[in-house]
Amino acid sequence: MSPAAPQFRPRVRWRRLMGRVFQGFCLLAGLISVGVLAVLLIHVAWQGWAYVNWGFLTRPPSQLNPEGGGVRPALLGTLWLMVLTALIAVPTGVGAAVYLEEYTRRNRFVRFVNLNIANLAGVPSIVYGILGLALFVRWLLGSRSLLAGALTMSLLILPVIIIASREALAAVPSSIREAAYAVGATRWQTVRHHVLPAALPGIMTGMILSLSRAIGETAPLIMLGALTFVRFAPGEWSDEHAFTPAGLWMWFTRALDSQFTALPIQIYNWASQPEDVFRQLAAAGILVLLVVLLSMNAVATGIRAWQQRHKLW
Amino acid sequence: MVVLVRRAKEALIHVLLLACALVSVATTLGIIVVLVHQSIPLFREVSLWAFLTGSRWAPLLEPRSFGVLPLVAGTVLIAGGALLIAVPVGLCTSIYLSEYAPGWVRQIGKPFLEILAGVPTVVYGYFALVFITPEVLRRLLPQTEIFNGASASIVVGIMIIPTISSLCDDAFRAVPRSLREAAYAVSATKLEVSTRVVLPAAMSGVVAAVLLALARAIGETMAVVLAAGMTPKLTLNPLESIQTMTAYIVQVSLGDTPPYTVEYHSIFGVGLALFAMTLGVNLLAQRVLRRFREQYE
User: How wide is the angle at C-alpha B271 spanned by C-alphas B270 and B277, nearest 5°?
Assistant: First the structure.
């Protein structure tokens, strides 16, 4: 080594100090999110707490007497929307996942579909609303109905369900499939009796998480025109309906065809009005929405924990 | 006979499952066809060139003008501001989670990020309008308008922090241990390992995360509608009311616009521009991500 070369100075103390500073900085960054969420929750609870009671859940909103208003049509609309969306999107999404995971090899078509699904997952929700408006409201159904909303929401969450279900299916070890094939099961029998049951917890978790995403979606429903003032929830029972198959069917199809509103729409509606009372009602609506969301998340977390304790393989 | 029935059943199921998979392809096609087909009447009224380069957006006032630039500028201003907040915070959070945090913090941190990501955007919009603007911004900067781009930027930034930190965390954890251990062996500190070994090695994953978050910020709607206002204008001042592409689309569908008028078709034109922007960013992100995966798998 030539004597002119600069000496290596470890500067250990300085570097350790910088390390500490950096660690503190990173921890602080992490705590920012925690802090913001805490402020948000406290603010919403403080603003809305006084309004949340049984009457708030069971009364329709009121423009003339805002304090006496509630979220009944919005809450029921959200529940209807979620059940219908699940009924449409889950079979389709799981079917697509089974096809892509179990029925094909990695060929060009699968690569194309993969790219397509990844891109669909990144399409802004409002674009789905535009699609729903043109396709379902204007063209196929001709009305701003609950069914149009459920179909639009289904398209919106389909990529998420497909991706989650595929992950769950891919985690099932191939020895289970091979054992089924070895005793002469067909492909569908293998999937139906062995692979799907083994992947079920993972699929359920994905379903719940994607539905909880759909519950909070507002923009696509506004596009479909769900902002119109609705006093009645879809599927109100009246004396015209009878407890017969035909009567129930009439009730169901009427519900599908009825106008609807949903919790996030109601929240938007209240939040966009300048008076304080409406803002507090919005906070109360947010509390209801967050309780629904957090309980869905809790169920998903519970399923995940159960799955980890009862590992099948 | 039984075999034949079983084969027919298998074939039928195969076709049904294929049809399910094709729904996603049909959705993409549907989006493109609807956006292009329904915006044609708009482009009869105004040329594509005037639409893309015009600097005045006034579809509802006479004289009408359909220059999309103010809307694009509003979108870019809010998305850029959001990245300014979310990239440093999200990146530092993920470095902390993957390099520093003890196991129990990670166990809490990941589900917590999921919860943060699951808060509906309308809630963030409410928070921006009712808390951030009056309680924070107008106290610090009294000239802030009631509707302003800054509050929307802040909440959109908070909204995309989980996207960035979750994806970056995955990218950091995909970096092989051996790289870290080699650096520790020559007595590097944790800071040096994180910033000079792990971060460069995971760079493409980080870039992809930022791009995916950017696409989300561009497409974000409800927070922007509630907080940023409905005034399309070309400005760099985040304290003024501005309008994004998504907010314009909502504005038109809130009013009772009769179908098949120029205003009605203009939402499809703006939607097309929005779709093209997010698609471009997403495709770029996937490209970067694929390269990243090839590196370590």
Answer: 95
- Gap between the Cα atoms of A229 and A265, Å rounded: 10
Query: From A304, which residue of chain B is nearest by alpha-carbon distance?
Result: B111
Other C-beta atoms closer than 10 Å to the C-beta of A187 total 17
CA nearest neighbour of A222 among B94, B73, B9, B257: B257
Contacts of A18-27 with C-beta under 8 Å, sequence gap 24+, read A18/B189, A18/B191, A19/B189, A19/B190, A19/B191, A19/B192, A22/B191, A22/B194, A22/B195, A23/B96, A23/B100, A23/B190, A23/B191, A25/B92, A26/B92, A26/B93, A26/B95, A26/B96, A26/B100, A27/B96, A27/B100
Q: Cβ of A283 under 8 Å from any chain B Cβ? A: yes
pLDDT tens digit sequence for B212-227: 999 999 999 988 999 8
Contact between chains at B246 and A33 (C-beta distance less than 8 A): no
Question: How high is the ipTM of this complex?
Answer: 0.90
CATH code of the domain made up of B57-296: 1.10.3720.10
Domain-by-domain residue ranges, chain A?
68-228+245-309
Which of B216, B146, B41, B213 lies closest to A134 in space, CA to CA?
B41
List, for residues B111-146, the tens digit of each pLDDT value. 888 888 889 999 999 999 999 888 888 888 888 888
- CATH number (1.10.3720.10, 3.40.50.2300, 1.10.390.10, 1.10.1040.10) of A68-228+245-309 reads 1.10.3720.10
Q: In sequence order, what are the residues at sequence separation of 6 or more whose Cβ sits closer than 8 angstroms to the Cβ of residue B290?
A: none
Considering only CB atoms, which chain B residues are within 8 Å of A126? Answer: 219, 221, 246, 249-250, 271, 274
Calculate how close chain B gets to A233, using CA atoms only, in Å.
21
**Residues A216, B158: C-beta atoms closer than 8 Å:** no
10-residue mean pLDDT series, chain B (297 residues)? 85 92 93 93 86 82 82 92 95 92 86 85 92 85 85 93 92 90 90 91 92 93 88 82 89 80 88 94 89 69
Q: Which residues pair with B66 in a beta bridge?
A: B57
Closest by Cβ to B30, choosing from A115, A135, A301 = A135
User: Nearest CA of chain B to the CA of A244: how many Å?
Assistant: 32
| Distance, CA of A218 to CA of A226 (rounded, Å) | 9
